[in-house]
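Weekend entry, working from home. Most of the wet-lab plans are on hold until the incubator is repaired, so I used the time to fold the two sequences that have been sitting in the queue since the last round of cloning. Logging both here for the record. First:
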Amino acid sequence: MARSHPPSLVTLASRALREECRLPPGARLLVAVSGGPDSMALLDVLARLAPKLGFELAAHGVDHGLRPEARAELELAERHAQALGVGFERTAVVVAPGGNLQARARHARYAALEAAAARTGSAFIATAHHADDRAETVLLRLLRGSGPRGLAVMPPRLENRLRPFIRARKNDIRLHLARHGVESSEDPSNRDRRYQRVRVREELLPLLADLSPGIVEHLNSLADALSGEERAGSGGLADLGRAQRRGLARAVAFAQRSAEIWLPGGAVLGLDPATLEPHVTAHAELPHVNKRPRPARKAAPRTGGSGPPADGI
């Protein structure tokens, strides 16, 4: 029997873009590129997928002014974008030293990306967050005492932000870079254990993986379930059962605009045809189902012995 190979990074991203990000054909997509391994892989993968899925692609890098190496890293990203025939621009921002530096740098980065998207006519911004990033974020939120809403992190699509790699693992990215000879740079802060995320990545997640090898997948499934409940809860549907959540997830993933999910009490959950957001579309009587009467069961002849009665009581 031939062994099946795991899907490639290109396949994982293609599925995510079509089924979960719901990227419409002809859309213009701005990919955020820093020169690091994840974003360089994303740039490379999206350039391969653009002609197949029918979207336009532009790339943008942001220099936070925090490291002198950043300029060379963005030059590496620009060279690869040019080799792929993808237009590349960059923005320099100023992030003043002080507390919560990473959060302030992230805020400045997204502001610059939103401005670049507006300039280039890009309806969407793609970032390279992957399944391991999502698992780390769930654990960080748990450590900070977040409730269910705070654990519903990094969905594949949030408004105009897309995460094509959200079903990929870090190792899928490494394999793609090696297989296709894509150069990348490594930010040394990604190994600095003064940051809590780095300790979660290098200490906590490996320990949990020893106890449960599927921990990254489990944490992603938790975020998926809570994201689904968060969206359903906005319409008063926070108590969906497992089968109903699956039905809702499938309807959204495959853009089944006519899907109907029956809820207790006669409510019907559907999708908004334009936004695919779930909402209650009707309250009605449950559909009548004709059932054939079950034939009467013949009583078994009595026999001696001490066995239980036929009703099991």
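Second, folded right after the first finished:
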Amino acid sequence: MGATIAGDWSDEQNDAIVADYFAMLGDDIAGRPYSKAKHNRLLQAVIDRPRGSIEYKHQNISAVLKGLGEDWIPGHKPAFNFQASLVDAVVLWLNRHPDWLAPAPRMAMGPSPSALREEAMLWIGPPPTHSNAPPPDELEQMTFIARKYDVAERDARNRALGRASEERVLAHERARS
């Protein structure tokens, strides 16, 4: 089977690479080691695309996730030149895995909430900078992506996460006094 060089990706190819991307992102968030090269090699065999094409598609998925305001793999810098069906594939994956965006399961990937409650000191890092805002040339693509996703549901999850964070800070302050 020779590697396909050009042409739009099929829905099946998009679904396969999106699922693989989220597997790597889950490992990254949890601090588990993984090999991007190994994932790439396995994908080459499954979707019949060359290494460079897969790497670029991973960057495209990072761009979609950035547009949704979600975490993305730091080693795959967002590349916003992608086919619209990739947004559909990412949104479909997220819809099939609603627990991915829920604060409790995501926190479970890292330290458990009970471990956070027991910790005596809270580390407070430097404040975010204005560079967190997307550059103007990405704004149109990010707006397109955001329109395909349920912003109200994401806002509700973010509010729940914010409340949990405020409770954590309050618990920390009470423990200090």
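Plan for Monday: verify the second prediction. Helices lie at 11-30, 36-47, 51-67, 84-96, 103-109, 113-118, 136-147, 151-176.
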